[in-house]
Amino acid sequence: MLAPGLRVVFVGINPGRVSAAAHAHFANPRNDFWRLLHAAGFTSRLLDPQEQFTLLDEGIGVTNAAYRTTPGSGDLRKGDFDGTRLERIALELSPRWLAFVGKEAYRGAFGERPGLGVQARTLGETRLFVLPSTSPANAAVPWSERLRWFRQLAGSAV
Q1: How far apart are the C-alpha atoms of 68 and 64, rounded to whole Å?
Q2: What is the pLDDT of residues 11-50, one digit of tens each?
Q3: Where do the structural domains in the chain lie, given as residue ranges?
Q4: What is the pLDDT of residues 40-77, one digit of tens each?
Q5: How is domain 8-156 classified at the architecture level of CATH?
Q6: How far is the CA of 94 from the CAs of 6, 11, 64, in angstroms?
Q7: What is the pTM of this model?
């Protein structure tokens, strides 16, 4: 779900089994993505994963760094990622930001270990931002910490 000129395109790592079955991004009910989007002010109301196309009305898109469905991100291989596709998205659609939901999405796409926050790398005019993963597997990172990073991006993506 992409369109030209979006404020932010969120880049997940890949569809997990729940998301693939639901045909919706971040569909696992324990995944905090949708709650964090709303709490950080990206959306005017809390959306359900089935309402994902409503994000376009908010100037937001969603895609994945890898398309293969796996039980967990640890099951992905280097060849599953396509950084050139993300570069094409940036150059052809010109979103202001590509926001990677988790360090592993960025690392898989570009082969670099990022820190959280704004990255030095850009893709044309598109800036890159790495957020903490919203996956239930990342539950060790507290909600308040994840929300802080989402709010930081929201403040930059207006």
Answers
A1: 9
A2: 998 666 767 577 788 888 889 999 999 999 999 999 999 9
A3: 8-156
A4: 999 999 999 999 999 999 999 999 887 655 555 566 56
A5: 3-Layer(aba) Sandwich (3.40)
A6: 7, 15, 17
A7: 0.92
